[in-house]
Amino acid sequence: MYIEHLGFDPETVPKLTFLQMLKRIGPGIILTGVVIGPGAITTAAMLGANYGYDMLWLFIPIFLMGITFMLTCYRITMLTGMPIIHAIRHYYGKGSAAFVGVCLFLACLFFTFGNISGSGAGMNLLFGIDWKIGALIMIAILLVMYFSKNTYSKVEKGILLCILAMIAAFYATLYVSGGPEWGGFFQGVTHWGFPKGSIHNSLAFISTHAAITAGVYGTYLGAEKKWNKKDMFNGTMLADAIAHVVTVILISGAVVLVGAIVLHPQGLRIKAPAQLAAMLRPFLGGYANLVMGLALLGAAFSSLLGNTQRGVVLLNAGLDKDVSLESKLVRWLCVACIVFGCVICFLYNGSPTRLIFIANLATAIGTPTAGFFVTRMIWRKDVNEGMKQPLLLQISMTVCYLFALGMTVYALVAKL
């Protein structure tokens, strides 16, 4: 049955070697660059500053949700031959696909504002130039990458460099600050609970780090990477999902720990990631601006590079338009979003705090809308036709979706 449905016997598909796997994965790395932007750094630093080690347990549901969302989306796409929003259109109609596409686009658009401000702030810390000039320089580099050939390859490599820069910067900061207090660290991981006033920060943190938007966009990146059905059995999809979630946790976990070690004991609070440089100066001295500037620029530019494309691709998918990264429509819509974002950021004088909050809220709403259809599809018999029902993945997707939905409803009701 499997052979007839897939065109090959899954048991005969060889597992890839480590080096072969490195060549096949890639969408997950791009998605890490998209996820870890100035907003993610801000919420992570605030979490550590406000609650110390108490909220480290959030990385456990983030790991489970991130892996589940990505593997579910990848499986649906491999079995149906359609990326997620196209599959939603096929099974549930044009209106549903358009609604999901617009919701996810708006969430990405708001993040673009914060990414523009963040890239300017990074340039300011590194070179002392006006943040607006710095932002325009980075946008010029961005546009060159958008309009060059082999766009996917350039984006993947550019984001990988940014991720390595972020990891180096934050772990250097952790080393200089003396590292965590291990008793508090393990207690924060094993004792689950929400300290007073933490629910909204927790929602923003989880919705940023484990949004189903990543899995949805990953299915379009997989098409750019030329994935095929054999990648569902040779280890590629699982390795890509793990690579994404682990790199997100490595970077964001370091930021939370910096906040817990450095900021929390002093009762310091931050509203923007650039403030971390001044607060870390006692530990890093004259290297504070260099380290945080490098981290912030890497976070902002990698997220700006991938996030703008993500929003446009998901919007076009919802409206049944061209989704190729090298299509003129995608490229020029990306330019329009960047121009619009610059106008908004310059009018707000580069203060992304409120925009970051709105973006987090939009993402929190986007996950329940897209997740509703993804959860339904993974349970469909016609989607899994010819395959053994993935009961563990189906249950995990349902539980993770209900958890995200419950947190969103609770936070919105509490806010009202």
From TrEMBL:
PANTHER family: NATURAL RESISTANCE-ASSOCIATED MACROPHAGE PROTEIN 2, SOLUTE CARRIER PROTEIN FAMILY 11 MEMBER. It is found in: Membrane. It comes from Acidaminococcus fermentans (strain ATCC 25085 / DSM 20731 / CCUG 9996 / CIP 106432 / VR4). This is Putative transporter. It holds the Pfam family Nramp. It comes from the Bacteria. It is a multi-pass membrane protein. GO terms for cellular component: plasma membrane. One of its GO terms (molecular function) is cadmium ion transmembrane transporter activity. GO terms for biological process: iron ion transmembrane transport. The chain crosses the membrane at residues 25-49, 55-74, 95-113, 125-147, 159-178, 198-220, 241-264, 284-308, 329-349, 355-379, 391-413. Keywords: Membrane, Transmembrane, Transmembrane helix, Transport. NCBIfam families: Nramp_1.
